[in-house]
Amino acid sequence: MEPTRVLFVCLGNICRSPMAEGIFRKLIKERGLENAFEVDSAGTGPWHAGEPMDPRTETVLKRHGAYFEHRARQIRPEDFQHYDLILAADREVERDLVRLAGPFRDKVHLITEPWGQGEINDPWEGDLWLFEQTYLELADLVEKWLERLWPENDEAGRAP
After folding, report:
1. CATH assignment at residue 56
2. Measured in Å, how far apart are the chain's first and last C-alpha atoms?
3. Which of 12, 52, 64, 73 is the most buried (most CB within 10 A)?
4. What domain range is 127 assigned to?
5. pLDDT at position 143, please?
6. Is 84 within a domain?
């Protein structure tokens, strides 16, 4: 069975999207689902391509046991075909992704969709406390997305 491919996207791929990726990686590892998913993250802009995640992101991910090695990258045209689900951190990112996605625009969703509204604010200009708050918001949302993708009561083990 092919893995479900999930891509988290923010502006520069150093704060929100690697944080969401780390949370997702932690959850699938805890549940023994590493072979069921492929996960990555990207940014809409090139500003930080090749750089590690923001040190505040690293601190928070380490604190929660969700750290992984990461180098920022910009989204590529082939990502839209490759990934099954592309989750945007905010409406600006979502608009950019929909514009770039062409026929694959139905794969793009706002990460806050399970909440029914809202955005994940960019913590980049904030302090460590704000990064911690962003982590807590993303942890709730990523858990909800994983429950949608892999419902525990689904006998086939995959969402329809």
Report:
1. 3.40.50.2300
2. 14
3. 12
4. 21-72+97-149
5. 97
6. no
Q: Are 122 and 10 in contact (CB under 8 A)?
A: yes
Is 90 within the bounds of a domain? no
Residue 158 located in a structural domain: no
Instruction: List, edge to edge, every strand of the sheet that includes 37-43.
Output: 37-43, 4-10, 85-88, 108-110
Q: Is the pLDDT of residue 130 over 70?
A: yes
Residue 44's contacts (CB-CB under 8 Å, 6 or more residues apart) are 9, 10, 11, 74, 75, 93, 96, 97, 100
* Residue 86 domain flag: no
Active-site positions read 10, 16, 122
Tell me what pLDDT residue 30 has.
97
The domain tally of the chain equals 1
pLDDT of residue 39: 98
